[in-house]
Amino acid sequence: MAYDRDNIFARILRGEIPCDKVYEDEFVLAFNDINPQAPTHVLVIPKGEYVSMDDFSEKASAEEIAALMRATGQIARDIGVAQAGYRLLANTGENGGQEVPHLHFHLFAGRSLGPMLAQ
Ligand code: AMP
Fold first, then answer.
1. What is the pTM of this model?
2. In a domain, 119, yes or no
3. How many domains does the chain have?
4. What is the position in ligand 1's atom list of the atom closest to the CA of 89?
């Protein structure tokens, strides 16, 4: 899938739409989800134009990949959920139910999150 520069996260990255920022560095932005599905629901995104994990892993630099991984763990520590636990989820493509075509990890926390998939 080609990257759509008008997707909502691209617009947030360009500053055209506000976000409730949790973390930012050279390669990564994280912000609270507008429609939280758990007491803590943060979205962690690379700043580069990547649709999915398969796209990111193929095209991103080692620096970008390391930055996203390091930032995700750091955010979990910084917001205080590392001890009690959390869930990372990347919906991908049609079968994965991805709505926004810019790679993002959902970080859910703040309560017991139940089974991994709806039964
Ligand atoms: P997904 O279905 O994995 O693509 O998730 C997209 C997520 O983006 C959903 O959880 C939405 O609630 C969230 N979302 C959409 N627009 C915004 C926005 N402007 N700010 C924060 N989160 C958003």
1. 0.98
2. no
3. 1
4. 3
